[in-house]
Amino acid sequence: MKVTQELVEQTLSRFAVLFPLPEHSKTPELSSIWYGLFHDMEVEVFAEACRECATKLHAFPVPADVERFSQPLRISKYLAAHKK
Length: 84
Known about the structure:
mainly alpha; globular; 67% helix
């Protein structure tokens, strides 16, 4: 299953509770921007990458943080799917 707009909105809301909100994250377009970036990502990978952001970062994550934490997960899923 792929990431949904609703999942992105929920994730950003959780981040807003965990981290002080920077000015750029108060725009209504933020969830649309994040959805545009992550709509093709698997839910499990997105959720785990966001959990990593929440536990390892000390500031509101940017999309590059989610990408950074998702790469090892994507690689391991790819390798598992193509293992023979």
